[in-house]
Amino acid sequence: MKKRTPISTIMTKNVITLNKTDNLETAELLFKRHKIRHIPVVSGKEVIGMLSYTDLLRISFADAVDEDEETVETTVYNMFTIEQVMAKKLVSVSSTMTIKQVAEILAKKEFHAIPVIDDDELVGMVTTTDLINYLIEQF
User: Fold this and answer.
1) Residue 40 near residue 15 (C-beta atoms within 8 A)
2) CA 78, CA 33: separation in Å to the nearest integer?
3) I want to staple 51 with a disulfide (CB 3.0 to 4.6 A). Which of 12, 86, 87, 91 is the partner?
4) Which residues pair with 124 in a beta bridge?
5) Please, which residues have CB within 8 angstroms of residue 129's CB and are 6 or more apart in sequence?
6) What is the rounded CA–CA span in Å between residue 52 and residue 102?
7) What is the bridge-based pairing of β-strands 121-127 and 18-19?
8) Spatial contact of 58 and 28, defined as CB atoms under 8 Å apart
9) In which domain of life is the source organism classified (predicted)?
10) For residue 52, what are the contacts with CB-CB under 8 A and spacing of at least 6?
11) Nearest-angstrom CA–CA distance, 28 and 46
């Protein structure tokens, strides 16, 4: 296992994002369509928050519907905005940090995803699944 491998080698580069003006119905559709669990929320190019599928589950019955279903019950979503539901205190990493450094942050903070930001611009996303897949490849 290489000790100095940068996180940029395993991060997702084409990141699905939400705008702070999008609605929660749009968010759920993106989660289901792309089979992802975390979406950075942006205002312009700035990352201002992170919305997780778990955040939606806290306020709805999103898990009660088939995950492949693309229709969404929106009644409860109309009561909240993305900014009200998303996590606002973000931790981010740069693409030059090592896989080990990022893994330590994820383990210590108990996050499952972290945005990769260079020069105030979102360049990628790393999840615990990315780290597990990297580890599997090493054996």
Assistant:
1) yes
2) 21
3) 86
4) 116
5) none
6) 19
7) unpaired
8) no
9) Bacteria
10) 37, 38, 39, 87, 112, 113
11) 22
Task: Convert the pLDDT of each residue in 27-82 to its tens digit.
Answer: 999 999 999 999 999 998 899 999 999 998 888 765 455 555 555 555 677 789 99
Q: In whole angstroms, what is the distance from residue 74 CA to residue 12 CA?
A: 29
CA separation for the pair 135, 139 (Å, rounded): 7
**What angle is formed at CA 37 by the lines to CA 12 and CA 98, rounded to 5 degrees?**
35
| pTM: predicted TM-score of the whole model, two decimal places | 0.85
Joined together, the tokens standing for residue 14 give: 């084409």
How sure is the predictor about 98, in pLDDT bands with cuts at 50, 70 and 90?
Answer: very high
Virtual CA dihedral for 3, 10, 55, 35, nearest 10 degrees? -150
The stretch 93-103 carries a mean pLDDT of 96
pLDDT tens track for 2-15: 678 999 999 999 99
* Model pLDDT, residue 1: 58
* Domains in the chain, CATH or no CATH each: 7-137 (3.10.580.10)
